[in-house]
Amino acid sequence: MSTVPHEKVDRTEYLKKYYQDNKEKRVASSKKYRQDNKEKIAESVKKYRQDNKEKLIVRSAKTRANKNNVPFDIDEDYIKKIWPKHNICPIFKIKLERSNLYTGDQSPSLDRIIPKLGYVKGNVQIMSHKANRIKNNATFEELIIIGKYYERQLASRT
Predict the structure, then answer these.
(1) Crossing angle, helix 11-21 and helix 23-36, to 10 degrees?
(2) Which of 44, 65, 87, 113 has its CA at a distance of 20 to 30 angstroms from the CA of residue 79?
(3) How many CB atoms sit inside 10 A of residue 57's CB?
(4) Is residue 157 assigned to a domain?
């Protein structure tokens, strides 16, 4: 590694150049570290996600709100306040558990009760990803129609 000359040098420019000049070496080193420490990294990610679940939900919601141009006014404290008791989905009564690698049925999910109102206090709730995926952007009336349809289908088969 070359050293910084004794004359006054803009450290930011020096580091930018260093990182550009050593990109391949840094990428290879990083790749090797990730390969050699998969379990350690997975455990670290799991712990971070568990310790920062409210922060991650708020950050994701803010990104979606900006993308979909809907209002946003929630924060981590609000998410803590509305988090389901005992970490249980209020709809399916399954334990809310975040996966390390992907969003699973039991992953906690932030639902907009009325989608067009956005991610605002009083219009969001935490439920399982499975429940939220089923609800998606359906209206209450559409969900009732689907429920009644399947109720009829089951009744006609017995």
Answers:
(1) 70
(2) 44
(3) 21
(4) no
Give 82-133 pLDDT, tens digit per residue.
999 899 999 999 999 887 667 899 999 999 998 899 999 999 999 999 999 9
SS3 assignment, position 72: strand
Element (H, E) at 144: helix 140-157
The 10s digit of each residue's pLDDT in 37-49 is 999 998 898 888 8
Q: List 124's β-bridge partners, or say none.
A: 112
Domain that holds residue 136: 52-152
**DSSP 8-state class, residue 119:** B
**Burial of 79 by CB count in 10 Å (0-12 exposed, 13-18 middle, 19+ buried)?**
buried
Indicate the helix (H) or strand (E) that contains 125. Answer: strand 124-128
User: Does 6 fall in a domain?
Assistant: no
Domain containing residue 74: CATH number:
3.30.40.220
DSSP calls for 76-111:
HHHHHHHSPGGGB-TTT--B----SSS--TTSEEEE
Mean of the per-residue pLDDT values for the chain? 90
Q: Which residues contact 41 (CB under 8 A, 6 or more apart)?
A: 34
